[in-house]
Design goal:
0% strand
Length: 61
Amino acid sequence: MECKCSLRQEVLSVTHLGNIIERTKTEVFGVKGLAFVQELYEQLEIQLIVAKILKQLFELT
């Protein structure tokens, strides 16, 4: 049970960070900063996909 709760929090946390970055990247950063933020956002998306897969695996067990 402990894993499911912390994994769910991790998924929510990564999703929340992705949403913040999505809003911030166009409002705050210029063209140069935008590439950096886009790369960071893509890394977060990968982490979110992995977290979703792990969540599904935990639900199967």
